[in-house]
Structure prediction request, 463 residues.
Amino acid sequence: MSDSISTSAPALYGSDASDDEQRDALTGGEIPVAVYGLGKMGLPLASVYADVTGNVTGVDVDPDVVESVSAGENHIAGEPGLDELVGGVVETGSLSATVDGSTAARDARIHVVIVPTLVDENSQPDLSVVESVMSDVADGLAPGDVVILESTVPPRTCVDRVLPLLEEESGLDRGEFGVAFCPERTASGRAVEDIRGAYPKIVGGVDEESTRVARLIYGEISDNDVIPVSDATTAEAVKVFEGVYRDVNIALANELTKHGEELGISVLEAIEAANTQPFCDLHVPGAGVGGHCIPYYPHFLIQEFDADSRLMETARDINDTMPGYTAELALNGLAEQGIDSEDAEVLVLGLTYRAGVDELRATPAMGVIERLASAGADVTAVDPVTDTYEPFEEAGASVLSLSDAREGSYDAVVLVTAQEAFEELDVPALGSGRANLVVVDGRQALTELQERDVYYKGIGINA
Prediction:
């Protein structure tokens, strides 16, 4: 532990003060907070912390992010209320930003880590960013501090990796500082609302005192219930289990969709009717599962532990096939219309993994484009939500603006992501006229075209 670490601010972990006294200190700005990571979830979290406590330093490795936040600017698009929140807390001095994590750690008493955790090319969980940030935290860790991890991680990360790292690199013993896991339960496009308490907050510490402190802190941050669980590992499992549930449920819906070809029914209609029974909650099929959460979190169990994971592995395999399946619907439709794929002009609508969110990680659009291009089709893609085109161009697509795409003529249109701007698009007018326009609806957003003079295939509708 560095001699330069400031310990003048009151501590929460191991304090003799009453809970009420600690709450007053926290909300009165007496306890400095450092939030490490100012990305899609980190900036909203840091801003809410700043609004509640009045004393937050945000840390990010990107100097451009730090510069924009320091100027009171929100660099995360599509988050209602975040512009005003960031501007307000920076103006009052409640939030500042820096690239120097070690210095921020020396000044802080509460350390909140919310940085990305993904998987590598072998689907192994990659905790290198978390561990790097924890080294910065250790450099400034003082007795009485509490470290809160919100990044989604494999269960046992806090006890097997974070706690030993902090002990070794800080020189402190276990019991001199707290460690808790408090999973973020937020979605892009509603982060501020979610953080403020759309759902109960889960907290679990490596010891009872860590759990108590985390519960006290989030009792002020969130307007909803704060649910303490037995330990940090249980809290870690809660977040991973939530993602696994969605992945497996979506895979089931996608598999049922493929049965719909033989059944000759709208699987979506059957799912909606089935869900009127309270013990059934089937999800919706689609062109694929993307984003920074669901495609990755099952691997935090599959790859890390020896327990049988056949169901999770199968679900991942099924969901990974959906972009190719979506593309095949288009290629089969072209063949039925007498158009060779190598002569076909195909328009792909939507590149982001989710409507309204500029996030391309694991987006199904990539697999759709790659399959169409490999079949020789001339692929054009459009998405007004993102301006990141290079990966899709490398995959074989020409990426145009929506206005330019409207001027083209196509043999097939494949909707992957139902962006709001597409609602006004006259899809049938995009046809080349060589045959019926092939329309593949990957998100049940073009169902009205079933009544138009097009060749329509909708995933979950009548595929």
